[in-house]
Every structure is written in C-alpha cells, then in structure tokens.
Design goal:
The chain is built from eleven helices and seven strands. By secondary structure, the protein is α/β, with parallel strands linked by helices. It has a single domain, classed as Alpha/Beta hydrolase fold, catalytic domain (Rossmann fold, 3-Layer(aba) Sandwich), CATH 3.40.50.1820. Strands 1-3-2-4-5-6-7 form a seven-stranded mixed β-sheet, sandwiched between helices. Strand 4, helix 4 and strand 5 form a beta-alpha-beta unit.
C-alpha cells in the first residue's frame, strides 16, 4: 500500500506487465463509481491492460471496498474523494491517464479542475457523471423510467434492501441481460455516502473551461445506460471539445461482464492514437 494516504488506509490494487512484455511509459489509474470499489476493475481491465504493457492501478475511495472509513461513510463528500485521488497520485513518478467511471469520472474532473490538467497524461470518462452533476440525468430517469428512479432513490437514501436484482440489472446492464447477471456484483456493492449523492444532485459542479487546455480526452457512454443516458454523455463530450462515442448494446456497468472487452478495446485504440502507448 502506497504512502501518502493519511489516516484512512486506502485499498490499492495493482497489475504490472508480465515478464517479457514491454512496459509503456505512461501508467493507468482507474477510479470507480458510486457503490463500487477497486474490485470492479479487477475482473478484466487490470489484467487485460497489464497484459498489453500498461502499469495499472485501481483504488477504493474511503468507505468503499477494503478502504478505511466505512463507519463514517455518510460524512464524506466529493472533495474527500478528491483528496483520496491526490493521496494516490502522490506516489506516481509519471502523470497517469485517469480512467473514471460514473462518479469516478466526476472526481477525476474535479481534481483536474483544481490541480491543473498537467497532472494527468489523459482523461477517459466512462458513463461519467456530467460536469454539472446528476440533477439532469435524474430528472430524465424520473420522467422516462419512474419505477427505476424510485428504487435507485431508495438505494441512495440508504435502503439497499429496497432495490431488486431486476432493477439493478436494468441499471447496470442491458434490457436483454438475464436476471441473474447482477447477482455477483450486487453482493460486492458498498453503500454510498448520502452527503456525496446530495452534492452531486445540488452544488457539486466542475468548471469545464479549466479542463480545455490540450488534455487528451476520451468520452464513452453506453446505449442502454439508464443512469447516465447517451444524451448527457454527448453533452459532456461537447463541453470537453471531445467527440463522445456511444457503445452499442452496453449498459452503465460498461467495464463489467462479457462485453467489457468492447469498452477496453476503444480505450486501447485511443491510447495508441494519442501516442500514449510507447
């Protein structure tokens, strides 16, 4: 576990290129979304990208996964998660590509807004919370998927027992996924800070102008994402002067399940196109 993590004790997972595989100079740092942990990258992304020569790190925000602070989870806000990112980055000799999913994408943007885009070699947003927060996507869900909105709302209010596996499956994957697809993931999901959720629905914003300074950026969304619909992903892309790509057939949990290779393939190609794979 790296130094510089304060008194929280952050869980860190790493994957290095195997012997005989040339390592790229630029490392990759993965940031998970709400209710998740570093485990969500361990299924395929960490070993997959390491096999391609990337030095990969994923960590769990405080109160998530095996990081400390679980008993105080609801006291943590978005800026606390930014501090966790800062602590992890303190141990990097080379600025990494930040790859953030959902809330993790927002944390990455919030960090770069304050620290400067030179602190990262690139930014990849996967079904990311938009720079303006969750208010818009939540209104969209309330209008077009009211039953799912109610269940997700009860989850965010601290009652995970109210969420059915069918609803979770619909939120994370595609409408045609088998009902049992989310079982294993549901068992690993953490709670989420009610303070952080409230901030994302109210005052948490990113000044996107501070991120438009030559930072290589990839914005990916999912066709069947019920939480961050494609329209909001495209808007984020426009704000960042980066074309958003909507992946057909995928849902919000685009780094999990049998179709995760589709997401990984787009990231790998972008890394090569940007000259980062050297």
């Amino acid at each position: 576990m790296p130094d510089g993590q304060g008194d929280i004790g952050l869980e860190v997972l790493r994957a290095r290129p195997p012997e005989g595989v040339a390592a790229h100079e630029t490392p990759l740092l993965f940031l998970h979304g709400a209710y998740a942990g570093a485990w969500c990258w361990a299924e395929s992304f960490l070993p997959g990208f390491a096999a391609q020569g990337w030095d990969c790190t994923a960590f769990s925000f405080r109160g998530h996964g095996d990081s400390g602070g679980r008993q105080r989870l609801n006291a943590f806000g978005i800026d606390d998660y930014v501090k966790d990112l800062e602590a992890i980055l303190a141990d990097f000799d080379t600025p990494p590509v930040l790859i953030g999913h959902s809330m993790g994408g927002f944390v990455a943007m919030r960090y770069l807004e304050r620290a400067g885009v030179e602190k990262a070699a690139g930014l990849v947003l996967l079904s990311s919370v938009p720079p303006g927060g969750l208010w818009g996507p939540s209104l969209s869900m309330m209008a077009f998927q009211p039953s799912l909105f109610m269940e997700i709302g009860m989850l965010q209010s601290g009652d995970p027992s109210a969420v059915t596996l069918k609803a979770l499956n619909k939120a994370l994957f595609t409408p045609n996924s088998p009902d049992g697809a989310a079982d294993a993931y549901f068992a690993r999901m953490d709670g989420e800070s009610q303070r952080a959720v409230l901030e994302l629905h109210s005052n948490a914003k990113v000044d996107i102008d501070l991120l438009r300074n030559g930072l290589p950026t990839l914005v990916l969304g999912a066709e069947h994402d019920a939480l961050i619909p494609p329209a909001y992903v495209r808007a984020t892309g426009r704000q960042l002067d980066s074309r958003a790509i909507i992946l057909k057939g995928l849902g919000h949990g685009m780094m999990l399940g049998p179709d995760a290779h589709v997401t990984a393939g787009h990231i790998a190609q972008w890394l090569a196109d940007e000259g980062l794979a050297n």
